[in-house]
């Protein structure tokens, strides 16, 4: 079966020089979702950018798995707030123009 | 080129040991890392500075060189020594076309002049860095974003085909992965962030996915009711006006607003506010009739 959107985690580990246990820990804490097919584990290619970010946080900043979870939650909140601020700015502009 | 104090950047004393440098670098990196400060140019600049400071101070040889010549580089003797030393190390690049005059140069030039080019220095280390993120602004009209469309952008000489989804908001930023600066040492490319500035020259006001407009009714249609034709963003529609419609009455035309971002076929609403246009320059006959109406109203 062809799986063009999925990447084998062993390939990821080889490419980024990381331990397979790191990927499994990320999966256990719910930070990434792995797909199992014929006893092999894969990650969806859309999630690679997030995974790269997690690897950088871990390697460059020594952030542990729980820390990465906290960081991602806060970044999501930040993004949500930014969108809210943007929507409010547009609303304000709407009333200013009226 | 101005002198850059790497110790000051890391907030450490000149007597700091390797452990202090590492600690200070890690602390600042955690604060200014681009992954923790998305879309923050100031943090990105600061992160580059602290990385540069760390590259120099964490390497004993470079730190020694920096300590010896860095402080007095502006004063010719010491600087000439540094220059000669670098020349003897067969640097491939000359300082500048003006014969070594060090005027208005930036941070990286300082680094390169002291340590022989950041690129060649980086090669000695295997660490990979993500390329620089690029930021661009795209100015569009509201009409342009009513429907999804393709556009070709040229960013730093590279043509990028972009599909702009209908309903994108003013000020919204989208990320295009890997279209930023090239990664260092095989690191991933940076990303391209495009901010949309949407100008509205239509008679419709936009708030989220809803559109707002006002329509003037003549007195008789407002009083007696009738049918009118109004403009929507998509075209004209016929509307029934209820008798005795008052000034400021609002009607909502469901699904006649702006497209919802990334939800094909889903639209916001169009909200119309009625204003009543009073007749002017009344004829004698009209005045008489209005007086008649007034009498009926006051007696009734």
Automatic annotation (TrEMBL), chain A:
Coiled coil location: 71-98
Protein name: MerR family transcriptional regulator
Keywords: Coiled coil
Pfam families: MerR_2
Gene3D superfamilies: 1.10.1660.10
TrEMBL record, chain B:
Gene3D superfamilies: DnaJ domain, Urease metallochaperone UreE, N-terminal domain
Pfam families attached to this UniProt entry: DnaJ (PF00226), DnaJ_C (PF01556)
Residue stretches making up the J domain: 5-70
GO annotation, biological process: protein refolding
Chain segments annotated as transmembrane: none
Keyword Manganese appears in the UniProt entry: no
Region named Disordered: 79-101
Keywords: Chaperone
An MF annotation (GO) of this entry: unfolded protein binding
Biased amino acid composition, Low complexity: 84-94
Domain of life, source organism: Bacteria
Gene Ontology CC terms: cytoplasm
Protein name: J domain-containing protein
């Amino acid at each position: 079966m062809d799986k063009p959107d999925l990447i084998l985690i062993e390939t990821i580990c080889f490419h980024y020089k990381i331990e397979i246990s790191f990927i499994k820990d990320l999966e256990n804490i719910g930070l990434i979702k792995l797909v199992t097919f014929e006893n092999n584990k894969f990650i969806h290619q859309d999630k690679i950018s997030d995974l790269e970010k997690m690897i950088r946080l871990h390697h460059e900043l020594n952030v542990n798995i729980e820390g990465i979870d906290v960081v991602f939650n806060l970044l999501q909140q930040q993004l949500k707030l930014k969108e809210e601020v943007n929507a409010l700015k547009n609303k304000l502009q709407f009333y200013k123009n009226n | 080129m101005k002198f850059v104090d790497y110790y000051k950047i890391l907030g450490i004393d000149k007597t700091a040991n390797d452990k202090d440098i590492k600690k200070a670098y890690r602390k600042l990196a955690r604060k200014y890392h681009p992954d923790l400060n998305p879309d923050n140019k100031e943090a990105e600049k600061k992160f580059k500075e602290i990385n540069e400071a760390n590259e120099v101070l964490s390497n004993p040889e470079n730190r020694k060189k920096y300590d010896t010549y860095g402080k007095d580089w502006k004063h010719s003797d010491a600087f000439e020594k540094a220059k000669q030393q670098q020349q003897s190390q067969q640097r491939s690049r000359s300082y500048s076309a003006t014969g070594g005059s060090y005027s208005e140069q930036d941070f990286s030039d300082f680094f390169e002049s002291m340590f022989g080019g950041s690129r060649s220095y980086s090669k000695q280390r295997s660490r990979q860095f993500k390329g620089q993120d690029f930021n661009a602004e795209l100015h569009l009209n509201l009409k342009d974003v009513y429907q999804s469309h393709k556009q070709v952008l040229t960013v730093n000489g590279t043509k990028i085909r972009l599909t702009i989804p209908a309903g994108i908001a003013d000020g919204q930023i989208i990320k295009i992965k890997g279209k930023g600066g090239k990664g260092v040492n095989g690191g991933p490319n940076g990303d391209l962030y495009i901010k949309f500035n949407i100008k509205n020259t239509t008679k419709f006001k936009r708030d989220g996915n809803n559109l707002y407009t006002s329509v003037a009714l003549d007195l008789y249609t407002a009083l007696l009711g009738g049918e009118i034709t109004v403009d929507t963003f998509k075209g004209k529609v016929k509307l029934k006006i209820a008798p005795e419609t008052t000034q400021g009455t609002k009607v909502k035309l469901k699904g006649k607003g702006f497209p919802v971002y990334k939800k094909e076929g889903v639209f916001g609403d169009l909200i119309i506010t009625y204003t009543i246009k009073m007749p002017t320059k009344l004829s004698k006959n009209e005045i008489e009739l209005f007086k008649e109406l007034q009498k009926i109203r006051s007696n009734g």
